[in-house]
Amino acid sequence: MAGASVFFAVPGRREQAIRLLKSGSSRLDVVRSLKCAYATFLSELRRNPEFRANVLQAETAGKQRMVRTIMRAATRKRNPDWKAAAWFLERKYWREYSRHNPDVITADQLSASIGRVVAAILASVPKAYHEAVQTKINEIVRGLKHERESRNAGE
Questions:
Q1: What confidence score (pLDDT) does residue 4 get?
Q2: Sign for the pseudo-dihedral over CA of 1, 11, 54, 32
Q3: Spatial CB neighbours of 41, under 8 Å, sequence gap ≥ 6
Q4: Where are the beta strands (DSSP E) in 16-119?
Q5: Which of 14, 66, 76, 125 is such that its CA lies 20 to 30 A from the CA of 49?
Q6: Quick check: 101 pLDDT over 90?
Q7: Number of H helices and number of E strands within the chain?
Q8: How many CA atoms lie less than 13 Å away from 28 in the CB half-sphere?
Q9: Which of 8, 6, 60 is nearest to 31 (CA)?
């Protein structure tokens, strides 16, 4: 954690991060602009409650700014842009309005499938092995969650 506090001790770095987030930049964009590791940014968030609060507030302000821009384009009196409204709906209410790739399964579908596979495996092995099998499956699921969180870190 000392690395984060040293990096963010340089005057203006926290403020630069906040400015970028308010403009609509992602956290990943921020760390790239600051030339720091994502882990350093996360460490500072955990270490510094004031910075964390400012980051959350800036992210909200950035989102609101973008939504206002999209809604202005969608609802302007002269030449309203229906595509802006459609774009907003596809992202805000993606489960209802986005195009769905038939070859992609949702997290809920994956979870249900894993549950069925686990039940089939446990039904096929002696009870003495159930705990070891369940432990291994839990490790695999945790790994999947970690991969997903890593992929989503830049949002």
A1: 63
A2: negative
A3: 4, 17, 27, 30, 31, 34
A4: none
A5: 66
A6: no
A7: 9, 0
A8: 6
A9: 8
**Which DSSP category does 35 fall into?**
T
Backbone angles phi, psi at 102, to 5 degrees: -65, -15
Q: Which of 51, 4, 58, 50 is nearest to 29 (CA)?
A: 58
- What does the block give as tokens for 135? 């432990």
- Tell me the whole-structure pTM to 2 decimals: 0.57
Q: Which amino acid is at 121?
A: I
User: Which residues, including other chains, have CB under 8 Å from residue 107's CB and lie 6 or more apart?
Assistant: none
- The predicted-structure confidence for 115-154, as pLDDT tens digits, reads as follows 898 889 999 999 999 999 889 888 888 887 777 776 665 5
> For residue range 37-58, what is the model confidence (pLDDT) as tens digits?
999 999 999 999 999 999 999 9
CA quadruple 111, 150, 22, 29: dihedral sign: negative
Cα distance between residue 93 and residue 84, in whole Å: 14
Max CA distance (Å), the chain: 72
Does 27 have pLDDT greater than 90?
Answer: yes
CA distances for 7 relative to 33, 36, 152, angstroms: 13, 8, 24
